[in-house]
């Protein structure tokens, strides 16, 4: 409400009581520093991929994480009995009538392993050749995909319980995970003359940059020296450890935490599209003076969804490197924050820099 011509002092206002012990929160302005323009990190914004397999497909099996078949995470046996008569309260096993055991043995007998593998391979082939005009090439792609699925089951699927049959993968959650991981790990075989996997760059926001970072926060922050961004927000103790190490690694030119940076990698999980936000972007200089960019993820505990994120990140790196206009990129997962420097050094040496 606006009041005109009346002094504000004459309007009675009820004052909110203030606790004398209340601590006033201090805000920190996190921003890109113009004087550190030489430490800027840019990155492409990818919204999808151009995937055109004609005759030959290749599986990057070394980049696909292990899949754990763990039946202990869901009930595998249920005791049931018919409801007889009228009872007050919740149902229990004390009433009359015979009990029956429902388990997964009939399901395992019905879903043969070979049939499940064929279903997975058929879904992968459908994804590789979705357009109606490409359906004629499915008979060429399907045998290669089928071999890839068998190879994945033999080398990358781990059964936690010894007595659990491999037919357990016929469950929808496992089938979806296998399809999603193999889809992200497959690409045209460029050595056989196939066109490479390429990214689809956002049309209206093609390039992201650390120069766009500007926000306020009440969280604990740490000043930076090797970053275009003024502070690193510390949500946990390991983030301070990682930031301290990045400041002192000689090969690091610049780094930035992916906070309000809007750097995302698309991936699919349980049939739904998601966006993965890695922890850090880093500019590195190799021994030959060549500059590369590194995506760093620090992870102490991994879930199956985290493993799917890693597969998607490696696919993103392959597509960007095939594109060739955004520099050379790498992806590293660090499982111990204190080993950041050694993991980065190993990545540099493995890349031949």
UniProtKB/TrEMBL annotation:
<feature type="domain" description="Type III restriction enzyme C-terminal endonuclease">
    <location>
        <begin position="226"/>
        <end position="310"/>
    </location>
</feature>
<protein>
    <recommendedName>
        <fullName>Type III restriction enzyme C-terminal endonuclease domain-containing protein</fullName>
    </recommendedName>
</protein>
<dbReference type="GO" id="GO:0015668">
    <property type="term" value="F:type III site-specific deoxyribonuclease activity"/>
</dbReference>
<dbReference type="InterPro" id="IPR045572">
    <property type="entry name" value="RE_endonuc_C"/>
</dbReference>
<dbReference type="Pfam" id="PF19778">
    <property type="entry name" value="RE_endonuc"/>
</dbReference>
